[in-house]
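User: My advisor, Dr. K., asked me to get a structural model of this assembly before our group meeting. I'm new to this, so sorry if the format is off. These are the inputs:
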Amino acid sequence: MNLGKILKNAFLLVILGLIVTSCATKKSVKTTTTTTDSSSTTKAAEAAETQKADPIEKLDALMQGDVYIGSDTVGELASGVPDRVFFATNETILTTASRETLRKQAAWLRQNSDVTVVVEGHADERGTREYNLALGERRANAAKDYLMTYGVSSDRIKVLSYGKERPVDSGSNPLSWSKNRRSVTVKAN
Amino acid sequence: MKKNLFLIFLVYSILKPSISFSLVEIDITRGNLDPMPISVSPFFSNEDTKDKIKNILSINNLGLEISKVIENNLEKTGLFDAIDKEAFLQKPDIAHLKPRFEDWALIKSQVLITGKVTSKIINEKDYIRIEFKLWDVLGAKMVDGFSLTTVPTNWRRVGHKISDKVYERLTGESGYFDTRIIYVAEEGPKTQRVKKLAIMDQDGFNTKYLTLGNELVLTPRFNPTNQMVTYLSYFRNMPRVYLLNIETGKQEVVGDFPGMTFAPRFSPDGKKIIMSLAKDGNSEIWVRNLETNIQEKLTDHPSIDTSPSYSPDGKYITFNSDRSGYQQIYVMRSDGSNVKRISFGKGIYGTPVWSPRGDLIAFTKLHQGKFFIGVMRADGSGERLLTENFYQEAPSWSPNGRIIIFYRETKTDDMGKGFSAKLWSIDLTGYNERLVKTETDASDPSWSSLLGN
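Assistant: The format is fine. Below is the predicted structure of the whole assembly, which you can bring to the meeting.
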């Protein structure tokens, strides 16, 4: 029957199409990686001065590995006490700088024992929504655990994960994403 | 939602069920290279009916509108090519009575759909009776048809039911047109999105908003057996899984958990909700029986375990875990035993969703900075990527398992502008990728089962 012939041809065309597309998808996608070898905290201070420098140099000054080390978006829990810490992609490990920030937060909270806080955990947009909710919760708890280690009782700290729902930077680039991978300690009373 | 919307009146009266094997058949497993030419004649109605319907619905020619609903549904499958009505040689009323098949063959139509709309009054209330016939032009015979009577406002659903019948008859698969999609409607800047639950017909009509946008809502999912929905709400800044009855608007929190509950999904029988509980930095999968109120922990691992989805027979659960170091897809028995990793390709994998047919699992994959929607068999073999983009995730199956709907977000420019989120659909074949139109930006789609009568 004629119809059978047409279907046969259509089938061959589909097979051909699949072969062609599968070849096309094998094309490797170029990925940009940022590598930083030195690890000085002065880089953060330099950040402001490198505004006019070329983009790659600027990125180096604001990110270590892919952890944000700049001061843009960073607020204060109290005077001289930064409110947030940043994470590497998919990570919940606290960096040296993050631990320093959290020790400052803990010291201030010990002095102000009537204050309770919410630690908000966030992820960047490069993950699935549900996994990011879990990741945000994990990050917030990493910060909470550290605060507890430095003497803040657990009943003063609530955690709240926003996943990728509340980015601070709406950009779609590695620097924006690094600012969004964060946990933020917010006064609750 | 009003109850009469679901009340399609009187049973189907099949006109002439054809027992002979139809000449016109479509194999839908092969993509859309050669769509079948089809004619949808405007449904005929007399002047008296036209006047009455105009008064009730403010629609001049309801028969024409119904034929457009059917045409639109069938064309969007990519399997059919609707012939322009301008080319039709025969008038709707005569064609419906007895088509002159030569006239339809002349314009290369293989299939013809005709119909008739009549207004009726039953117990002093207005109804419409819609009759439809499906004709095989080459075989010169009627192959299917039915009539049904319903309230006039239900006319689009009648169009969908006819589309389902035609699709079933010509492809041998069950249809998916008389269905709805629940999703999250989004508005506002990327850093402060306002999100509401929204529901619409599968073809984008009859959008209704179910929440006001006062609190963040995410991941609504239909109960496959009724009009209940489960979703995540940040009500009072306590992210918890909720249950919502979309007919009554009544909602309640699901279970009593000491932390954030998220990623909910119903069991195939609709009696349980499976979800994640995050506590002290660890997410585990739990199930709660909605009848007995017994809740049970199914996974026990210090990694993130989330995005659970039941197999259609309820015996297995697929889920997402990073216990190997990165997000991968796992399958376990529904009691939590026999955990096995099934994804082993390059990249990381998330959001596994079991096909209603049971043979495939749809997923999101991130590889080399790109997001893919793909499918694999339940044992992890036969991975096939259907679509690639900057960002897309959250696949949801059409009730017949032929189409996957998901959402896609755009990359912003250097100024952080140009963000949007939209629903898209793609055939299981990897063909026929389409934007699903929504009134606002949209994400987290979930496809309902076929609606009842």
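One thing worth pointing out at the meeting: Residues 155-171 of chain B form the longest helix (17 residues).

User: Perfect, thanks a lot.
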